[in-house]
Design brief:
- This protein is α+β, with helices and mostly antiparallel strands.
- Helices cover 37% and strands 16% of the residues.
- It has five helices and five strands.
- It has helices at residues 9-14, 30-43, 101-117, 125-134, 140-151, and strands spanning 22-24, 55-61, 65-70, 76-80, 94-98.
- A five-stranded antiparallel beta sheet has the order 1-2-3-4-5.
- The radius of gyration is 19 Å and the shape is elongated.
Length: 159
């Protein structure tokens, strides 16, 4: 993400590929994606909140958590698959439904990101830029321009 004088790490995280322990499934084969939706379908019991709903996998976590998009809805859900390959007993598979992908980012992904890095979520503008640079969200030239402008009390070069 290019620095434009208004860098916000939370917004940048929402607009970049998933980091660390989440792996995007966007470019995975249909068979790969079907493995997860088929397993979810096997595990769901009649009263489960996802029973009868069509979903598609968005991403998978390093654990057995999967992020699914609920088809014909803005909602997404994180489901902890058990890989039992059979109908589960309540409350499994554990499921958290979010009103939107943005809600998932705000309440789950971004707080986890900060926790994994061991940094507070209320970073100053300067700290956001340093972290953004360190994890590759801000390029070298943009970061150098920011540091130079900051050091010389100059306006930040906006592209």
């Amino acid at each position: 993400m290019m620095f434009k004088g208004t860098f916000d790490i939370k917004s940048a995280l929402k607009n970049e590929p998933l980091f660390y322990i989440w792996e995007s499934c966007a470019n995975k084969s249909t068979d790969f994606r079907k493995t997860f939706t088929d397993e979810l379908e096997k595990e769901l019991y009649i009263d489960h909140p996802l029973y009868g709903l069509e979903v598609d996998i968005i991403a998978r976590h390093a654990s057995d958590d999967c992020l699914f998009k609920i088809t014909h809805s803005n909602q997404v859900c994180v489901v902890h698959l058990t890989w039992k390959q059979a109908t589960e007993i309540s409350p499994y598979p554990l499921t958290q439904i979010y009103e939107s992908l943005d809600a998932w980012y705000e309440t789950d992904y971004i707080p986890d990101f900060f926790c994994i890095l061991g940094i507070p979520s209320d970073l100053s503008f300067f700290e956001q830029n340093v972290i953004g640079y360190a994890i590759g969200l801000i390029g070298n030239k943009d970061f150098e321009n920011y540091i130079y402008a900051r050091a010389h009390n100059m306006p930040i070069n906006r592209r």
